What does this fold into?
Amino acid sequence: MTSSPKAVGLLAAIVTVVIWTSFIVVARASAAHNLMPLDIAFLRILGASCVLLPWGLWLKKSSPHPFQGSLAGLSPLPFRTTVLAGLFGSMLYATLAYSGFFFAPAAHASVLMPGSLPLWTSLLALFLLKEKPTRSRFVGLMCIVVGDLLVGGASLLKAFEGGDVWRGDVLFMSAAFCWSVYTVLMRRWALDAVRATIAITAFSCVTFVPVYALCAFTGLLPSHLGTAPVSEMLFQAMYQGIGSVVISGITFNVMIRHYGPVRSTMMTALVPGLSAMGAVWLLNEPMQANLLAGLLLVTCGILFGVRKG
It folds into this structure.
């Protein structure tokens, strides 16, 4: 059976929203257990590598054309493309995002991570792709900016009282920026979804994984890989690696190919509300007035920006 491009794009959007929503709740819940943030990033890359690296080698072997990849055949993309996409779409994004959950609640991530994506992506698309935002999209972006300020600005003011939540907010927005760079590069280079996901995982596997393993083993960086339960590490490798990287990585890239980078990031309008409600119901996080106002503004801004007019 063959599916229309519209049906494929819609299915990719649904899968992406479901995984992104659960990712925020699971990542915040993981911060209360045994593993450190870089431990989770390490397991995420290992879990994804178990699936994607054999896949990449199979693509190399089965390709009838001369192989144009890099990293000794692990990446199906050229070296420069692999490095830039892998740096922003895998290594920096993972380390910044997981570190943020150790300082700020999941409800903040619900607003600042998906909420910042359309803002950063629109700015990058303007300079790199020469895509000017429409009037409705500009209004949506202004709503997102105000919503982000209501959440991040409030925690930043509390920093003078000795709070650390603002650190997590900055990390969340930095992670969103890195993912936006990857999103625009995907569109600019018209990368295949599967090959791009394999490439960024291969880059992190040959750079971050051995360096962090050495630092954790020698005690240069704090790590709980040697003391955490095996079941917890297996869960993180399966969920963060196969779920968040392999499945949602490919579906998000399909969204970019079908809808473009700006509309793709704005189609995640359900993520802030669903993940914030999940944080309240499952993690017993409070829903403060400024957080609720920011959540509503960001959601409205994303919905408004999806409009074509």
Q: What stands out?
A: The chain has one domain: 5-306. Residues 5-306 form one domain. Residues 149 and 294 are 8 Å apart (CA to CA).
